[in-house]
């Protein structure tokens, strides 16, 4: 199973910890709020750091969802 990183825009207060931990997965907009880059899919190599980022957001704005990819269904 792949994981997708989701940012709840209404919760993000721009603490920027996620960006520090997983700059490959997070982009910060002009107002300083975080968004998942691209489709948000987390490469396996970054899964542990993504979990760390979820735990480190003071606003609980980040979460990881399981995604059913075609490869994992076979
Ligand atoms: Fe926002 Fe949390 Fe990151 S408040 S900038 S999602 S650490």
Describe what you observe in this structure:
This protein is 26% helix and 27% strand. By secondary structure, it is α+β, with helices and mostly antiparallel strands. 22% of the residues are buried. Residues 7, 12-18, 34, 57, 59, 61-62 line the site of FE3-S4 cluster.
Jot down its keywords:
alpha+beta, 5 strands, binds FE3-S4 cluster, 74 residues, 26% helix, three-stranded antiparallel beta sheet
Strand coverage percent = 25-35%
What about the largest sheet? 3 strands, antiparallel
The beta-strand count equals 5
Question: Are there runs of 5+ residues with pLDDT below 50, and where?
Answer: none
Tell me roughly what share of residues is in helical segments. 25-40%
H/E element sequence: EHEEEHEH
Distance between the termini: 11 Å
Oligomer: single chain
The Cα radius of gyration reads 12 Å
Continuous helix count: 3
Structural class: alpha+beta
The outline comes out as globular
List the bound ligands. Answer: FE3-S4 cluster
Mean pLDDT: 94
Would you summarize the structure shown here?
The protein contains three helices and five strands; from the N terminus they run E-H-E-E-E-H-E-H. With 74 residues, the protein is an alpha+beta fold. The strands form two sheets. It has a three-stranded antiparallel β-sheet with strand order 4-1-5, covered by helices on one side. It has a two-stranded antiparallel ribbon with strand order 2-3.
Question: How would you summarize the topology of this molecule?
Answer:
Layout: E1 2-7, H1 17-21, E2 26-28, E3 34-36, E4 41-42, H2 47-56, E5 62-67, H3 70-73
Antiparallel strand pairs: 1-4, 1-5, 2-3
């Amino acid at each position: 199973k792949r994981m997708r990183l989701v940012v709840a825009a209404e919760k993000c207060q721009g603490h920027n910890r996620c960006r520090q931990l997983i700059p490959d997965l997070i982009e910060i907009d002009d107002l300083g709020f975080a968004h998942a880059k691209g489709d948000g899919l987390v490469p396996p190599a970054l899964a542990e750091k993504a979990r760390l980022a979820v735990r480190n957001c003071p606003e609980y704005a980040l979460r990881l969802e399981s995604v059913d990819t075609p490869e994992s269904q076979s």
